[in-house]
Amino acid sequence: MSHPASMPELSIIAPAFNEEDNVEPLIDRIAEIFVPAGVDFETLIVDDCSTDKTSEKLLKLARKHPWLRIVRLEKNSGLAAAMDAGFRNARGRVWGTLDADMQNDPAEILRLMKMLSPDVDMVNGWRKDRQDKNRFTRRFQTKIANGIRNRLSGDNIKDSACGLKVYKRECLEGFTLYKGMHRFFPTLVKIRGFHVIEVPITHHQRLHGVTKYGPGTVGGARAFRAFVDLLAVRWMKKRVIRYQTRELTPSSTTLPPGAAP
Fold it and tell me: Which CATH number fits domain 10-239: 3.40.630.30, 3.40.50.720, 3.90.550.10, 3.30.1240.10?
């Protein structure tokens, strides 16, 4: 990924699949929060080849909001592909991600951005008080999934699958994603040597419709695929290469240990 000539401060990235009833409230809320704040930003909605009127509504909104960009996948490819497309097309120095279903408040991105610092490269949202319609089941599933994930990966993230996150661009710039890797962004960023913190965020019930990127049931096919993906991340973490170098020049006054003078 090359840096664009003019980089906005922030790219808001949201994957969307059949969210025709939610994209307008989402864009209205983003306008309400970020335009008065004076943030130099863009919003990038990645339409995962929706079969409803999601793209049509987004195009209508883009005529009103010049900061709105739309990327559409040519075929339905899943959440990891939609996130990857967003990252590859984002121009901002900071990336803020959220779900398009209005369960995340875009205002939280502004709050989490302020937590980035020379010592903090990524802020992961933690849905401490989930408000899903079947929230007790979802909380149970999330607790089990995160427990297994942390046990095998050696991590301590409470809500790795939360869609609301804020990154410095370099955390994932140029990184190759694979199917299912969207579940492990905090761990992947840590593997690359960046510092991640996690903070509680507000969470709301879905505004319209039902989730299309659901977690499935524990023990189901989706859970099995997630487990296989987790083993891949565990392997990556154990096999990561870390080293330091320094360049030698003829004017160097010291030689490497064991080198002949």
Answer: 3.90.550.10
